[in-house]
Amino acid sequence: MPNDPIADMEKFLAEVSRTVRAVLSRRFPTVAWNEKEDIEQEVRLKLWKMRASGKKIDNPGSYLWKVVYTTTLDLLDEKGREIPLDEACEPGRSEREPRMEAGWLEADRRLDFERRLEALSRNRRTVIELGLAGLDLEAIAAHLGWSTARVRHLHYRGLKDLKKMIEEEGEDGHGRG
Asked: Which of these three, 25, 51, 82, is where a domain ends?
């Protein structure tokens, strides 16, 4: 009796959902319930596209963790760029008159940091981003399949590079002078 492809797909998607929820619960407990659903749907879509393209994955479990992490980091990055309207407005001002200086200053600092982060090598940037997401060096190493020594080296070199960029450019990112 041949396998039922629909039943196999439903079983696979149920396993993906369980894994996504487990990763999010353990590593991103502060993510809101509706955001977790969005992440789960996005991960399923990415896996579906990967399958449709015929891409073969050597270690599906590790790949799934990586997709969940990167998808969550992307969502948190987008969310971090948003400035809620109630925070942008001072008491007594209407929503049409936002308090610009605080929101813009924070946004400017965030953009400076993101620009500096993008200037790092890909491996250093990946390690720093996962660290910022709350993973310790051992968890990053396990997630990426690298040795803890390699991750530690990339982490500290990445931090050193960021510090050097800040010293060279000044804290405001516009250079000294």
From this structure: 82
